[in-house]
Fold this sequence. Notes:
It is a single chain. The chain is of the alpha/beta class. It contains five helices and five strands, in the order H-E-E-E-H-E-H-H-E-H.
Amino acid sequence: MAEKVISAIVEELKSSTYYSISVDSTPDISNVDQLSFVIRYVNSIGEPVDRFFGFMENIGHKAEPIAEAIFSTFNKHNIDIKFLRGQSYDNAANMSGAYSGVQARIKLVAPLVDFVPCSAHSLNLIGLCAAISEEEEGD
């Protein structure tokens, strides 16, 4: 069933040509880290869609194996990276680093890809800082 769903997503993705990705580390219920992989594209009726593409196995937090897992996923499903136009990750150096982060490694292979930091992560950091400031002022 999962293979059929992924095949349908890949078919729709290929018909839309351009796409972007978002990859993030997520702990499961047993606190084991896994990478969630989401693809965003515009479907045939002009609507932007986000599709959960799956979890990638725990490969650690270093940029090189994460980038290789992304490339491997593209290759496995015959998705051409030259049509990738956007990538979004958290602001951790391993993901967003300008020289050796995942975004930089992908940009070496696909120079037209723009990187946009995940706004949800930034918003979480802002909320955390605000909560800490509030606590400090309350003391």
